[in-house]
Amino acid sequence: MSAPLIIFFVLATLAVLGAASLIFQKHPIHSALSLIVVMVALAGLYLLMGAEFVAAAQIIVYGGAIMVLFVFVIMLLNAGEEERTNLSKLAKIAGWPLALALTGVLAAAMIRASPAVANPARPGALSDTATLSKLLFTDFVYPFELTSFLVLVAILGAMVLAQREQK
Amino acid sequence: MSDFLTHNAFWILSIIKIAVLLFIVLTVNAYLTWFERKVVAHIQSRWGPHRVGPHGLLQPAADGLKFLFKEDPTPAGVDKFVYYLAPLLALALALTSMAVIPFGPNPIPHITFFGQPIHLWVANPDISLLVLFAITALSVYGVALAGWASNSKYPLLGGLRSSAQMISYELALTMSVVGVLLMANTFSLQEIINAQASIPLFGWNFFGFTSGSKIPVPQILGFLCFFIAAIAETNRAPFDLPEAESELVAGFHTEYASFKFAMFFIAEYTAMITVSCLVAILFFGGWLSPFPASWTWTHYLPSVTLLPFGLWVIWDGIHYETIFGKLVLPAVGFAMAAIGGALIAFPAVNGFIQPTFWLLAKIFLVLFFYVWARGTLPRLRYDQLMNMGWKVLLPASIANVILTAALLLWRGH
């Protein structure tokens, strides 16, 4: 087995284990830590594909900024261990079949797409930061600006909600 | 055996380099505490450490032994896994960041390690600056989780403060280097240094001149924003609110003792060194000499600093009160003077260490500024801290980006 393949399996296992642990952990902080493991493992996978900038951005934005906010809020609320209630009847009956169906659909899509996944269309194209930023500001400028507008709306909404109580 | 070495030379060399770098960084860390205590003491008209060894020079060793041999209790009611994870995370991330710092442009001449040239860095990714920012982004967890896992009120407050502070200042930190990135067009630290090489001294990003154009693009505003934000990001005075001893006992590390506390301590000082390296590289030309290359006499500056300083240490040692000092100080001084003399005798070696000498000199100056700020400025109040981050530094760093872009357009970049 070649070195990149071994690294891939290590990172993939880490990501899957982290995701499973995210669900099974009882304490919110432990769940948040598991999610950080998933984020960092994903960054490693991007790095393996040669997308250096995306990998670094993944860690800075998701692993750093967003997850720090998660941890911050959990700490601020001093959230304790979650309590388990009895599952709803609907989930008991329909849960497993639906989960199996979703797994089946995803697996079918992946098997159909596997030759394309094995040979990524443009290896290395994403690694060049200059190319990436040029694409972002030419071909994808409308989606990019729309996303930033969306974030702005979210910020304004948060400010309105925070200011309302002071009246 | 040699076949194995030739095939795996890269890996073995990397491991050796990591070990050497670790040794150097940890030693520098230890003596940075001594240096800081001495400088702050003299700012406050005290003597600082002077009991353990001549001039207190063995104080770091004594402190290290104290950390190792102290009792290491685990408080009741802590979240054991996170409690142990936090100092590990803090230290590991801080030390990892040193790996991408380049300490010199050229590999060691005439010597190869089984065919591998020996460069003065451990790793050289194209995105080394982004790697550093990624590590900074993750290093919040060490402090925040330590505060939470301790299950105690003061650490929790310290942890909360530090998360809020580091999120606020990370924005300004990242925005303030965009000016430098616009000028260098790369994320690689080495190419950022090379982009400043066109004119000595005034070609550095701080002044922003370049050969072929009269319009300078100075990064003075960018430097101020970066340095202030970096001091806050490393939790150093006057931004040391997470561990404000007069308010929070010791903040996030109150419940940590012995070597787990030492790990936080080492992480903080390593972060200081990394920031100093970054300031030197991004704004002050890294390993570039401030003098024109034609001034060959400046090559003797390392000797000119080492020789008289070594002689002074010998003189000081002869007049020292204790017998131990009378023996050790002249020996140290003789070693310094001998290195200084040897550099004059071997011009090839002297030429090779020039870039490293200038980088280390700049790093040392920035570290002195760090300590100077700690000894001079009072701690900010929490609301002042937040105002400073969001209402002063962030707008100023964004203004710097716009200004730099406009000047570069005017210059016809």
Supply database-style keywords:
heterodimer, A: 167 residues, mainly alpha, Four Helix Bundle (Hemerythrin (Met), subunit A), 3 domains, 6 helices, B: 413 residues, two-stranded antiparallel ribbon, 16 helices, 2 strands, 1% strand
Our estimate of the beta-strand percent of chain A is under 5%
Can you tell me the CATH architecture of the largest domain in chain A? Up-down Bundle
Greatest chain-chain interface?
A-B, 26 and 31 residues
Report the span from N to C terminus of chain B: 54 Å
- Helix coverage percent of chain B: 55-70%
CATH topology of the largest domain in chain A: Four Helix Bundle (Hemerythrin (Met), subunit A)
Largest sheet entry of chain A: none
Instruction: Write down the overall geometry of chain A.
Output: globular
Residues in helix, % of chain A: over 70%
Largest sheet of chain B: 2 strands, antiparallel
**Average residue pLDDT of chain B:** 85
Please count the beta strands of chain B (DSSP E, at least 2 residues each).
2
Side by side, the strands of the main sheet of chain B go 1-2
The unreliable regions of chain A are none
Question: Which structural category do the helix and sheet elements of chain B fall into?
Answer: mainly alpha
Derived structural class of chain A? mainly alpha
How many extended strands of chain A? Answer: 0
